[in-house]
């Protein structure tokens, strides 16, 4: 059997793959958090709930309306995005003039409310969501067996992350977002509707979380607590990458996913805490994060 | 001259602090008017209140016959007003070119990119560098240039010469003269009244959040002594 660093190659590549899949979710979620924080200066604690909501809407669409995975991949983010925009417009907006802590507390309360409601309605146990037929089965890569759906998650999330990055770095809308992140008042004085830009950004961030939720539904079970399980890790990712850095959030998401996967191979006992150990080290040595600019 | 901007009884607050106590002024179409005054008398606040950045305000502001008091900030530019802040506000995450084309062109009669690059050749050379890598003078040029694209009729210009070398100050003076030839109306806040005397038609002297005096450029030399006294320069 081929060995690498004293570990069977299959085990190594298998965990690398799992790491990349987890990393895909970390990247998608921390990307949304970073965009929202950059422009709104709100630490969106509802991000996990929005992720859960995406998965649940996909499950509800399938269970009650017979609407499958592919339409859900569009409908769920759209719906959660609209809910997010409405929440920004009617509630979150009132808090911008106050201490940032209020935004954090509000979104935290929102997350608890949404999660509690779904727990009450559907219980704490997970609901299975079938892999779409088109992506069922697997491919034998010779050195390992790759479930096609997992390959799809990695490729698709990478496309979404890079697409979002391109929109922000290379388009006119992106230049508005970047400029408004630096100086919203001046951008508004140029005739750009910054309040609308804030609504759009929060909606987009929420939609990204919901998209990750739909992607996650066939891999993890759909449960009311799936968001709060992952969001703590995602916050660690954002801290390591540096708040407000878009590329930093993406790269750190994948890196930490892989680091977590590989730790499972070499020292399984530490795999649950490795991300937090890295976070602690980064906070000590480079408080602004790996990609963050010093404030 | 037809008044383009009319301000009457303008009061403004920053939170608890009452900064403007009834400012009255008019600026005619195509006129270049300078606000003089010591630090802290409310010159910048006057510009920011006219633009609608300072929202805690009372009184009258009308532009081209239209009431601006109820217009939200992002709709003011559409009426034809542009604001160039003292700190210039060049965006560090945008290239020079991106900074230049950031404000949308909202009205006809704005300068084209080619005309702007002709007026500011430096910006053309450095169009791909990061906005904040420019020198102070170039940043000031960029801050003025990006307003010119939008078709504004009137510029609110806050201390454009602050901290700049004499040769750059002279260059900015030339730019303002060219803009005046094109019919641009300008309300300028300036400490450097030697510079202001070369470009302005008329002066308002501000003190304690009010207009304390007004005179045309022709009376400037006769008032030098008084101005030195009042401005402490």
Automatic annotation (TrEMBL), chain B:
InterPro entries for this protein: AAA+_ATPase, ABC_transporter-like_ATP-bd, ABC_transporter-like_CS, BCAA_Transport_ATP-bd_LivF, P-loop_NTPase
SUPFAM superfamilies: P-loop containing nucleoside triphosphate hydrolases
One Pfam family in the UniProt entry: ABC_tran
Superkingdom as given in the UniProt entry: Bacteria
Entry keywords, A to Z: Amino-acid transport, ATP-binding, Nucleotide-binding, Transport
Gene3D superfamilies: P-loop containing nucleotide triphosphate hydrolases
GO biological process terms on file: L-amino acid transport
Stored PROSITE patterns: ABC_TRANSPORTER_1, ABC_TRANSPORTER_2
ABC transporter domain sequence ranges: 5-233
Alphabetical list of PANTHER family matching this protein: HIGH-AFFINITY BRANCHED-CHAIN AMINO ACID TRANSPORT ATP-BINDING PROTEIN LIVF
Family affiliation: Belongs to the ABC transporter superfamily.
Name of the protein: ABC transporter ATP-binding protein
Gene it is expressed from: livF
